[in-house]
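Researcher: Good morning. I'm working through a list of sequences from a screen, and I'd like to move beyond sequence-only analysis. For each chain I'm collecting a predicted structure so we can compare shapes side by side. This is the next one on the list. No need for commentary yet; just the structure.
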Amino acid sequence: MQRQNYKEVLLAKEVAAFTGYCPRTVTCWVNEKKLRAIPLPQKYVVPKEYLINFLVSDYYNKSIIKKIAEAFHCALGDI
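Model: Good morning. C-alpha cells for this chain:
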C-alpha cells in the first residue's frame, strides 16, 4: 500500500498517538469491533470517518473518563 494514496486513513500507531493510548490498545479496539478498520496484511488502517465515530462513542468516552480518573488518583496518591 502506498500511503500517499490514502490520505484519509490512519495506521494504528497514528490512532494511538492521537488518542494517547498504545497501538496494542488500538488493535484490541479493532479486534473487539469497537473501532471499525480496514484489514490489510499485517496491519489495519482506520478511515478518519471511522475514528471520528469512535471518538464520539459512549464506549470511548467512558474509557477516557476512566483513564483521567486513574491518572488523577495516581497524581494525588494517599492525601
